[in-house]
Amino acid sequence: MECIADSTLFSPTGPAIKSSSLPPSTGPHNVVKLFCFDFDLTLAATHLYFELAQKYQPRSEADWITSYKSEYEGRPLDVFGGEERVRKLRVCLSGIRDAGAESFVVTKGVPGCVREALVCAGLGDYFVGVTDFNPKQLAVLALMNSRAERLRYDQAVLIDDDPRNFAGLYTPQSLLDGGWTSEMVALYGTPAVECSEERGWGKEGIGESGYCRVFRVEKDKHGIDEGDMERIRNMARETVGLGDK
After folding, report:
1. E strand or H helix at 113, and its extent?
2. Domains in the chain, please, with CATH?
3. What are the residues facing 103 on neighbouring strands?
4. Which pTM does this prediction carry?
Protein backbone atom coordinates (compact mmCIF):
# COMPACT_ATOMS: atom_id res chain seq x y z
CA MET A 1 0.00 0.00 0.00
CA GLU A 2 1.32 3.40 -0.95
CA CYS A 3 1.63 6.14 1.64
CA ILE A 4 0.76 9.52 0.17
CA ALA A 5 3.34 11.96 1.49
CA ASP A 6 3.81 14.46 -1.33
CA SER A 7 4.16 17.85 0.37
CA THR A 8 3.39 19.61 -2.91
CA LEU A 9 0.12 17.76 -3.33
CA PHE A 10 -1.03 18.48 0.22
CA SER A 11 0.30 22.00 0.67
CA PRO A 12 -2.54 24.56 1.04
CA THR A 13 -0.75 26.59 -1.65
CA GLY A 14 0.18 23.58 -3.75
CA PRO A 15 -0.95 23.12 -7.35
CA ALA A 16 -3.32 20.28 -6.53
CA ILE A 17 -5.41 22.58 -4.33
CA LYS A 18 -5.03 25.86 -6.21
CA SER A 19 -5.33 24.57 -9.76
CA SER A 20 -8.49 25.53 -11.63
CA SER A 21 -7.20 24.28 -14.99
CA LEU A 22 -8.25 20.67 -14.48
CA PRO A 23 -11.41 19.77 -16.39
CA PRO A 24 -14.34 18.99 -14.08
CA SER A 25 -15.62 15.45 -13.93
CA THR A 26 -18.48 14.61 -16.23
CA GLY A 27 -19.47 11.53 -14.23
CA PRO A 28 -22.97 10.94 -12.85
CA HIS A 29 -24.08 13.17 -10.00
CA ASN A 30 -24.10 11.91 -6.40
CA VAL A 31 -22.12 8.75 -7.15
CA VAL A 32 -19.07 8.94 -4.90
CA LYS A 33 -15.69 8.15 -6.49
CA LEU A 34 -13.42 9.09 -3.57
CA PHE A 35 -13.92 7.80 -0.01
CA CYS A 36 -11.74 9.42 2.68
CA PHE A 37 -11.91 7.57 5.99
CA ASP A 38 -10.83 8.81 9.38
CA PHE A 39 -9.00 6.04 11.25
CA ASP A 40 -9.49 6.19 15.03
CA LEU A 41 -13.07 5.31 16.05
CA THR A 42 -14.14 5.24 12.40
CA LEU A 43 -12.28 2.42 10.64
CA ALA A 44 -10.74 1.33 13.94
CA ALA A 45 -12.96 0.34 16.85
CA THR A 46 -10.50 1.91 19.29
CA HIS A 47 -8.61 5.20 19.48
CA LEU A 48 -5.25 3.69 18.64
CA TYR A 49 -3.39 7.01 18.74
CA PHE A 50 -4.47 7.93 22.29
CA GLU A 51 -4.06 4.36 23.50
CA LEU A 52 -0.45 4.07 22.34
CA ALA A 53 0.41 7.66 23.29
CA GLN A 54 -0.72 7.17 26.88
CA LYS A 55 0.96 3.81 27.39
CA TYR A 56 4.22 4.12 25.43
CA GLN A 57 4.83 7.86 24.78
CA PRO A 58 6.32 7.14 21.32
CA ARG A 59 8.22 9.94 19.60
CA SER A 60 9.25 8.90 16.09
CA GLU A 61 7.16 7.05 13.53
CA ALA A 62 9.36 4.00 14.15
CA ASP A 63 8.52 4.25 17.87
CA TRP A 64 4.81 4.31 17.05
CA ILE A 65 5.08 1.19 14.89
CA THR A 66 7.09 -0.61 17.58
CA SER A 67 4.51 0.39 20.19
CA TYR A 68 1.68 -0.90 18.00
CA LYS A 69 3.46 -4.23 17.51
CA SER A 70 4.13 -4.56 21.24
CA GLU A 71 0.50 -3.87 22.12
CA TYR A 72 -1.22 -5.91 19.41
CA GLU A 73 1.20 -8.74 18.67
CA GLY A 74 -0.84 -11.83 17.85
CA ARG A 75 -4.15 -9.94 17.87
CA PRO A 76 -4.10 -7.33 15.07
CA LEU A 77 -7.84 -7.67 14.41
CA ASP A 78 -8.63 -6.31 17.88
CA VAL A 79 -7.82 -2.78 16.67
CA PHE A 80 -10.83 -3.10 14.36
CA GLY A 81 -13.22 -4.83 16.74
CA GLY A 82 -12.42 -8.46 16.03
CA GLU A 83 -12.73 -10.98 13.23
CA GLU A 84 -16.41 -10.47 12.42
CA ARG A 85 -16.17 -6.69 12.13
CA VAL A 86 -13.03 -6.99 9.98
CA ARG A 87 -14.95 -9.33 7.68
CA LYS A 88 -17.69 -6.69 7.34
CA LEU A 89 -15.11 -3.97 6.68
CA ARG A 90 -13.68 -6.09 3.86
CA VAL A 91 -17.14 -6.42 2.30
CA CYS A 92 -17.62 -2.64 2.50
CA LEU A 93 -14.19 -1.74 1.15
CA SER A 94 -14.24 -4.34 -1.61
CA GLY A 95 -17.64 -3.01 -2.69
CA ILE A 96 -16.16 0.47 -2.99
CA ARG A 97 -13.22 -0.84 -5.01
CA ASP A 98 -15.39 -3.03 -7.24
CA ALA A 99 -17.52 0.02 -8.09
CA GLY A 100 -14.41 1.75 -9.44
CA ALA A 101 -14.01 4.17 -6.52
CA GLU A 102 -10.92 4.73 -4.35
CA SER A 103 -10.42 4.76 -0.58
CA PHE A 104 -7.90 6.83 1.38
CA VAL A 105 -7.24 7.26 5.09
CA VAL A 106 -7.04 10.86 6.30
CA THR A 107 -5.90 10.77 9.92
CA LYS A 108 -4.63 13.00 12.70
CA GLY A 109 -2.61 10.02 13.88
CA VAL A 110 0.69 8.65 12.57
CA PRO A 111 0.48 7.38 8.96
CA GLY A 112 3.13 4.68 9.36
CA CYS A 113 1.38 3.24 12.41
CA VAL A 114 -2.03 3.41 10.72
CA ARG A 115 -0.62 1.70 7.64
CA GLU A 116 0.93 -1.04 9.78
CA ALA A 117 -2.37 -1.68 11.55
CA LEU A 118 -4.26 -1.89 8.25
CA VAL A 119 -1.74 -4.26 6.67
CA CYS A 120 -1.58 -6.53 9.73
CA ALA A 121 -5.37 -6.83 9.70
CA GLY A 122 -5.44 -7.66 5.99
CA LEU A 123 -7.06 -4.34 5.04
CA GLY A 124 -4.09 -2.52 3.52
CA ASP A 125 -4.77 -3.41 -0.10
CA TYR A 126 -8.13 -1.64 -0.05
CA PHE A 127 -6.53 1.79 0.41
CA VAL A 128 -4.64 3.84 -2.15
CA GLY A 129 -2.87 5.85 0.54
CA VAL A 130 -2.70 7.31 4.04
CA THR A 131 -2.09 10.96 4.91
CA ASP A 132 -2.00 13.07 8.06
CA PHE A 133 -2.46 16.34 6.16
CA ASN A 134 -4.94 18.59 7.95
CA PRO A 135 -7.45 20.20 7.97
CA LYS A 136 -9.04 17.10 6.60
CA GLN A 137 -11.34 18.75 4.08
CA LEU A 138 -8.33 20.37 2.42
CA ALA A 139 -6.66 16.96 2.22
CA VAL A 140 -9.80 15.66 0.52
CA LEU A 141 -9.77 18.64 -1.82
CA ALA A 142 -6.16 17.95 -2.80
CA LEU A 143 -7.07 14.36 -3.58
CA MET A 144 -10.09 15.51 -5.59
CA ASN A 145 -7.79 17.72 -7.68
CA SER A 146 -5.09 15.09 -8.16
CA ARG A 147 -7.03 13.19 -10.82
CA ALA A 148 -7.17 13.69 -14.57
CA GLU A 149 -10.66 15.12 -14.04
CA ARG A 150 -11.33 17.30 -11.00
CA LEU A 151 -13.99 15.66 -8.86
CA ARG A 152 -17.09 17.65 -7.94
CA TYR A 153 -18.06 18.01 -4.27
CA ASP A 154 -20.79 15.37 -4.67
CA GLN A 155 -18.23 12.79 -5.83
CA ALA A 156 -16.11 12.73 -2.66
CA VAL A 157 -16.98 11.99 0.96
CA LEU A 158 -15.15 12.38 4.28
CA ILE A 159 -16.21 9.78 6.86
CA ASP A 160 -15.38 10.78 10.44
CA ASP A 161 -16.63 10.58 14.02
CA ASP A 162 -15.59 14.15 14.90
CA PRO A 163 -17.75 16.89 13.33
CA ARG A 164 -14.96 19.42 13.88
CA ASN A 165 -13.17 17.76 10.98
CA PHE A 166 -16.01 18.68 8.63
CA ALA A 167 -15.28 22.41 8.84
CA GLY A 168 -12.82 24.20 6.57
CA LEU A 169 -10.56 27.04 7.66
CA TYR A 170 -11.33 29.35 4.78
CA THR A 171 -14.33 31.53 4.00
CA PRO A 172 -15.21 32.29 0.35
CA GLN A 173 -13.76 35.81 0.69
CA SER A 174 -10.50 34.56 2.17
CA LEU A 175 -10.20 32.12 -0.73
CA LEU A 176 -10.63 34.97 -3.22
CA ASP A 177 -8.09 37.05 -1.29
CA GLY A 178 -5.70 34.10 -1.45
CA GLY A 179 -5.79 33.96 -5.23
CA TRP A 180 -8.61 31.50 -5.91
CA THR A 181 -10.78 32.19 -8.94
CA SER A 182 -14.49 32.87 -8.62
CA GLU A 183 -15.05 29.56 -10.44
CA MET A 184 -13.20 27.68 -7.71
CA VAL A 185 -15.11 29.46 -4.96
CA ALA A 186 -18.36 28.58 -6.72
CA LEU A 187 -17.30 24.95 -6.99
CA TYR A 188 -15.96 24.51 -3.47
CA GLY A 189 -17.78 27.19 -1.50
CA THR A 190 -21.13 25.40 -1.43
CA PRO A 191 -23.10 26.41 1.69
CA ALA A 192 -23.56 23.84 4.41
CA VAL A 193 -26.81 21.92 4.56
CA GLU A 194 -28.45 20.08 7.41
CA CYS A 195 -27.46 16.44 7.72
CA SER A 196 -30.41 14.11 7.27
CA GLU A 197 -31.25 10.52 8.10
CA GLU A 198 -34.31 10.46 5.84
CA ARG A 199 -32.60 9.51 2.59
CA GLY A 200 -30.90 6.29 3.63
CA TRP A 201 -27.43 7.81 3.90
CA GLY A 202 -26.98 7.94 7.65
CA LYS A 203 -25.97 11.32 9.07
CA GLU A 204 -24.68 12.67 5.80
CA GLY A 205 -24.59 16.10 4.22
CA ILE A 206 -22.23 18.72 2.83
CA GLY A 207 -19.36 19.84 5.05
CA GLU A 208 -19.21 23.41 6.29
CA SER A 209 -16.42 24.24 3.86
CA GLY A 210 -18.40 22.74 0.99
CA TYR A 211 -15.43 20.88 -0.50
CA CYS A 212 -16.99 17.44 -0.23
CA ARG A 213 -19.77 15.41 1.29
CA VAL A 214 -19.47 14.22 4.87
CA PHE A 215 -20.68 11.16 6.75
CA ARG A 216 -20.72 11.48 10.52
CA VAL A 217 -20.14 8.37 12.63
CA GLU A 218 -21.76 8.18 16.06
CA LYS A 219 -19.03 8.36 18.71
CA ASP A 220 -20.53 5.68 20.96
CA LYS A 221 -20.48 3.08 18.17
CA HIS A 222 -16.70 2.52 18.33
CA GLY A 223 -16.38 2.88 14.58
CA ILE A 224 -18.69 2.47 11.63
CA ASP A 225 -21.19 -0.33 12.18
CA GLU A 226 -22.76 -2.71 9.68
CA GLY A 227 -25.54 -0.26 8.79
CA ASP A 228 -23.03 2.53 8.19
CA MET A 229 -20.91 0.22 6.05
CA GLU A 230 -23.86 -0.67 3.86
CA ARG A 231 -24.81 2.99 3.33
CA ILE A 232 -21.20 3.94 2.62
CA ARG A 233 -20.79 1.11 0.11
CA ASN A 234 -24.00 2.13 -1.63
CA MET A 235 -22.69 5.67 -2.10
CA ALA A 236 -20.34 4.31 -4.77
CA ARG A 237 -23.20 3.07 -6.92
CA GLU A 238 -26.46 4.82 -6.01
CA THR A 239 -27.67 7.93 -7.78
CA VAL A 240 -30.01 9.18 -5.04
CA GLY A 241 -28.76 12.67 -4.20
CA LEU A 242 -28.86 14.87 -1.15
CA GLY A 243 -31.81 16.80 -2.49
CA ASP A 244 -33.80 13.82 -3.77
CA LYS A 245 -36.80 12.37 -2.02
Report:
1. helix 111-120
2. 29-42+89-107+123-234 (3.40.50)
3. 35
4. 0.79
